[in-house]
């Protein structure tokens, strides 16, 4: 029945498409392989007649030399040599470099697309001689008659294989994967060896997956789809992009020449044998995932259309393979030409990371893509090294944003040069001084239009001001490419692509939703455990007056950093560490504690060591701590190195040291909250307010996958579920800026500042004339006008003083930001900007002293209520944040004071409402348990912990029933598995508590 769908018809459809199209003068031929055919050499993995014909057509002189030497055995000699070279060096090397033969010299296996269509001879004599072949049902094995559905060949050399399935016959892409895993054993099969083909595809009507290495049941497949799901194709198959975009001759040649990469990846692991961290390398063959190929190709097309001078935002989240995308993009840009291949578009491509220590993975990835030595320049010494690299041009420079500030005034050779600048983690590096210095560095000595002013002195001053203005503005000789998974509104406004409705969107996206859905990262919100704290305070000493608002904040902060609070929190952390973290990832799981201050990192570190020793766990588990600078501990100052040495860690490289299985917990406050990639990190314990980008970046430390890691765990003492959910929702899918910041706000704000009468236009002009004097030796000349303005400010009313200083500050922020997006022609705006930048430094520091409440109160009671694990869900669909707002000032209200006793009452009303009877019932239950003789016998017995735990649970449940007399909520609280387990674990690890609690 011809109307019944079949897999064969699916094959034929793809074959018909590829063989009927002509792509840049190239086209496929096709064959069906039968088991009796001999034209495919199953041992050498080649269609010999195809390769020989390619050599004869494209390299006739070479073939003639070989024939004079080898005669009738020429073909067999040539094919044997080709086979050995592929076996020794890998397919991708031989395709790009060819191979050497003593008689024929270098012999090519393929000719790639010319960069210019002007080279007609190369195109006709070389490029168009490539031969593409689509083979169905290739019988590949020397040992059996197994066949692969589709194999694509270039010049007789197999490039990739495809196993097709048709859902309408009851099979899916998973059946293809299974077939590759269990029916395509590479052992003894030449075609299936690593590096013999560049990729193996599984494909059904709707989905595509791929692998570059067949390893039996350990074969790992990656998705190769246009999104989490492929969009509906109203003209046919969802996967039609495969034969329309990927498998065409020009596409395959592009992938083989510029994308496929054989390299070695390094990882640092702990060696039990050597008792130290060792570097482990493995060989990998990288084939680009669809979104990586798509973003580079779309940028190539768009940049060619736009020319230099446009910004692009790439919203690619964790798991996108960003390092490879940046590497491929940088090489594409440095090899991008215009005017039919005659003119290079960029003199240099600069890759910038915001980290002071260059991202080693990014460096190594870009270096591994280098095909011509010397193209990649790593700037890791000084600014002179950067200056020389920029001057030489035609290269890729990797550096940090900090280096640019050093060389702003030293680079003089950049006139007329054009730059492509790729910024890694652009959400953190954009908008600060670093990016302004970057713009200024690359814009030095650009041609400027001369101002139409007669006076020579004014002319010189205006020229300098205009130069300063343009140094911050979008430069027509720089294209910026910003990568981030968490773009802020400011980032989208500067780098986003404008839309007809006035909004701005990322140029390309690979979303958090897709990364989680495809299994590249874990969903860190699937196991979120909030902890609710209840406490009561009591005053000690005299009842004093405190500023009400600040007093409440400081009292709550005091509670959270109180030694007793931290003791309880550490106890909860260690309970969960032992029951959850250390058992995860096949017993290798680790945890991170995130706290709010350096002082708290030390408190947590000391308390955790103490409790680990009390639990007799210190020989098995130790924490590491990380913070910048030093902090007071007792009577002396200590650093992270001092504390870590006390725990036996002698090195300085904490990420590497954390690989040691002895160190299971890392305590941090800022360092390692972002940019720390440790796949064994399973659990996070949060005692710090988090929101927005910082929240997402922090929790995302957990989402890296590794063998045996199937989930994560988050326990949060501070943040609400709603805060965490809203923070992640903003970056779950595409982030779209609904509208731009109105540039007219700059004029409005300046008019409002002028209303206070603090300065005149002449004073601003005079001050700027002094400021822009060449070789000004006396900075004291800048002081008089600033001091006069400051004295006028001092006589304003308190309300006007407060509002005016905030308006001046907001003007600097607003103008500094908008001038990077919009071209302002009004030089007065720039004059006021630079004048205000120095005026605001003269304003007195607001006199809000630190409020110390530590000697005013005691902690009367504390209860930490561990809620059940929650799965926080996010909604599909893009988010539409509004542009940042710049208020015109703030009214400073008179700070209200209240008695300490009243403030304590207000706090206790909110945080002290523990469920009625909880404290009384808890004491009653605990006393009942510790007095039970059977419970005491079980605790002190020689049984295994598992047997002890089972019997103790039985006794606990019987005792807990009595709490119903006090409170139903109390019974439910202690009936929760995690609360019950925590209490039982406490007695197992510390049986001495029985006697202490009886007392």
Automatic annotation (TrEMBL):
GO terms for biological process: DNA restriction-modification system. It comes from the Bacteria. SMART domains: DEXDc. GO terms for molecular function: ATP binding; DNA binding; helicase activity; type I site-specific deoxyribonuclease activity. Keywords: ATP-binding, Helicase, Hydrolase, Nucleotide-binding. Pfam families: HSDR_N, SWI2_SNF2, T1R_D3-like. Residues 303-505 form the Helicase ATP-binding domain. This is DEAD/DEAH box helicase family protein. It comes from Lentiprolixibacter aurantiacus.
